[in-house]
Design brief:
- InterPro entries: Sialidase_sf (IPR036278), WD40/YVTN_repeat-like_dom_sf (IPR015943).
- The chain is mainly β.
- It has a domain at 53-179 and 377-407.
- It contains 3 helices and 31 strands.
- It has a 5-stranded mixed β-sheet, with no helix packed on it. A 4-stranded antiparallel β-sheet has the order 3-31-30-29, with no helix packed on it.
- A hairpin with a 2-residue loop joins strand 25 (331-338) and strand 26.
- The longest helix has 9 residues, at 3-11.
- It is globular and about 50 Å long.
Amino acid sequence: MSARRVLVVCALLVLVVAGCDRPGTGGDRGDPGVGRSPADRDRPASMELAWQEATLPLPPGPAGRLVLRDAVSCGGSWFLVGGVVDAAGETRPAAWSSADGSAWAPVPIAARTFYGRQHVLYAAACAPGPTGGPDGGRVAALGAKNGGVHGNPRTATWVRDGAGPLREVPAAFELFGGPRAVSVARLAAGAGGWLIAGARVDGAAVWTSPDAGGFTLAEGLPELAGDARGRTAAYDVVALPTGWLVVGSLLPAGGAALTPMAWTSVDGRSWRRTELPVGNGRGRAERVVLRDGVPVAVGAVPDGFAVWRADDGSRWRRVGGFGAVGPGVLSVVGLTVVRGVLVAVTGDGAGRSAWASTDGGASWRPVPTPSMVVDGGDTALTMAGGEDRLVLLADDGRSSHAWWGRV
């Protein structure tokens, strides 16, 4: 995006509804307008936000470049996680808090292990306290650093109470790592405590905790883990009013293509499995949120990105789709909701893009971002929603930036 363009969109929030549907995009229909070319009329409408860049102070310690990975809105305040990479390529964990998403302050870091002092924090969740906001609740994060003889991720959790420091929670190596480790993906907080979704060698697995002060691994669980039907993997989790919803995939026994899956549980131990509907049975459910209490999942399928919704909380149906097949592997790397607007961040092998839906996932339009980010390598693009605004994080592999915009 040009500098002139950034100045224009920073002046106001404009919702442009124009153009016609293009197969596979689910774009809204509208008046094509006067003077628009046929090519313009074929493009899906876009939703443009007045992005304003936020300044993130360098945390205490050696100078270096910031790496921004995740943000969460918590009771009206914000929490952002990532790390710092110094001139020698060494990393250390970093976090920031904000009352409004525009002015940020570093959060003190209390690392306790050799690898913890080198972590980059990549996922965060929040349980608001009675006073609201991070200062009145509890924030937890996941961090990792590749190390050891095999260079595998050394993963741990972090927790912050109120306005105190973000503290590393030391854990036995095989809790998250070891010979059975595959992935530690995302975490969520709910009425039943905390849950992390991921995978072990026998399939999807979860880690549970009453307070994020220490997690217990649950692997090999019936219906959740792999079995004679195939191997499973879990990518994301959201808290339900009574329990948990995890999304992921199944690689059928003897098959070569993944199938999108969802699992529900009241206690994190007993799980119910559901295969999400997709025309040829191929795809992944990669991110999930609740929109007005209704679960919405988004994932990659052969013809782009699919959207599923469980209007009654359990029976899923495909309600829409968007995007186009790119030159590489398709992926959904972010999904959030703000004021009923769903915002997804996707990769297509070439670049990462943002999309928005105002009707529960049935139709989608592109969301222009102030930074172009290639897909792959040490890059990131994600968004978090809260109250009336979005926070956008972008890392192009050379520098990281944060913006916010009202919806």
